[in-house]
Structure formats: C-alpha cells, structure tokens
C-alpha cells in the first residue's frame, strides 16, 4: 500500500506524491502540468526506468494507474524543461515538499560515506568532473564557481583538493537565491513559507542588471545542477522597492501563459528594518 499525499501551491496547483520503499515519488502528470510540459510521454522517454512506477490513484475519472517518478528523475525533468518557473518550482519542492515528507517519517535520504578504501576510481572521477565542467560552462557559470564545484566534486569522490579558492574566503560577498532573499526580508506566504515566487516577481519589476546576477553550481539532496543567485545589492534594491510600495500584501504578475496572477504576501519584522 502506497502512502499518498497531495501538496498544493498557489502557482503550481496540486502535486500528488507517494512513497515506494521509503522513497518519495511524484506524479508525472502533475509535474508536467506545473512545468507546462505538454507531452508527458516524451518526458518519460528521457527518464531512468528504475525511478518510474505505475501506482493506482483515485482520480475524478475513478481509479487509474498513474506514473510516478523518483526525486532524481524529478530534478532531471525540471532541469531539462528550461521553463522560466523551473527555479521557483525547484525551491518549492526542496524547501516545502521534501521537508514535509521527511517530517512525516515517510522519507529520509541515505547518507553517503566516502573514504580512501571505497573512493571512486580516479579515471571515473576525472570523467565525471569533465562532464560536469562542460555542462556548467554551457550554462555560463562563472569560472570561479566552476572551480569551486570541481573542488567539491573531487572531495566528495574521495580526492581532497587543498588549493584555496576565493569561494572559501570569508571576505567573499554572500550570494542569495530567491528563498534566502525572502527569509532575509521577511517575505512569507500565507502558509508561513518563504515566498520565493513573490521575490522572483519583484526582481523582474526591478530590472536587475546582469552584473548583479550570478549563475552558480549547487548540490542538493544528491542532485547537481546550476542556479541563479543575486548579489547583496539586490537585497538593498528589494528593501527599497518594498518601502516605496508600502509593503504590498498582493503583488500582481503575469505568468508564462500570459495570465494575470497575484502573489499574496505576509511580512515578518525582518523585512521592515
């Protein structure tokens, strides 16, 4: 018997989840709808078969066998979608959906252990690093962050790199993603979660210059990818915008389909310095 749960988001609607052998699975139909992917069958062709399960699910049309995908396939689908809302969807899944699944006791990530006796063969490590570097370079990640990711990869694979990097220094300015900006400025949803979507909407209104936007590599829940982060100056601009607009609780925006939407915001004291 699979434990079914439904998560709801103002922007993405309902996403059904299930657990299979204590691993979280996500309804492929819901993921494709949320990411505005019109052909689930085409998406399935690019996924690992080991992470796809057919699960009986009660729908408006009765009990049906729906496809559910594991976390690795979920992130792969998000990354390959290239949709404007992919980052916001990733934040929602990693900051709300997965933590909730863990809190209910239905899922816990296995902890990887690496030491010299079981570390990855150097030739394989080199090939993995080469492939990751190629992806990051195509994504136009800045060289210093590619170097940091290479250092992290070799260390995780059992080959510690001791060369210092600028990213290791305390003097390097902190970078913020939309969720971190929301926490810093006290921008929350009515569900008491950092409202990364509202932050993304405000950033678009500010027309932030490219020099303030940094593309970096990240590793989350065993998944390597790239993400957009912002310099501290963007935080200052966001704070000014909120003050000038009297901390609006409803922030209108237009989604990727051209429909008019509204972000409902609740502020905490952090945003009213």
Main sheet? 5 strands, antiparallel
Assign a percent range to the helix content.
25-40%
Number of E strands: 11
Q: What is the element string, with H for helices and E for strands?
A: EEEHHEEHHHHHEHEEHEEE
Taken from the alpha-carbon principal axes, the silhouette is globular
Pfam families: Bro-N
Protein name: Bro-N domain-containing protein
InterPro entries: BRO_N_domain
Organism: Enterocloster alcoholdehydrogenati
Explain what this protein looks like in three dimensions:
Residues 106-114 and 166-171 have low confidence and may be disordered. The protein has 2 domains: 4-103, Mlu1-box Binding Protein, DNA-binding Domain (Roll), CATH 3.10.260; 122-271, no CATH class. α8 (196-206) crosses α9. It has helices at residues 28-34, 40-45, 71-81, 86-103, 122-138, 143-156, 178-185, 196-206, 232-244, and strands at residues 4-9, 13-20, 23-27, 52-59, 62-70, 187-188, 213-220, 223-230, 250-254, 260-264, 266-267. The chain is built from 9 helices and 11 strands.
Please specify the SSE layout and strand pairing.
Blueprint: E1 4-9, E2 13-20, E3 23-27, H1 28-34, H2 40-45, E4 52-59, E5 62-70, H3 71-81, H4 86-103, H5 122-138, H6 143-156, H7 178-185, E6 187-188, H8 196-206, E7 213-220, E8 223-230, H9 232-244, E9 250-254, E10 260-264, E11 266-267
Antiparallel strand pairs: 1-2, 2-3, 3-5, 4-5, 6-11, 7-8, 9-10
Helix pairs in contact: 3-4, 5-6, 7-8, 8-9
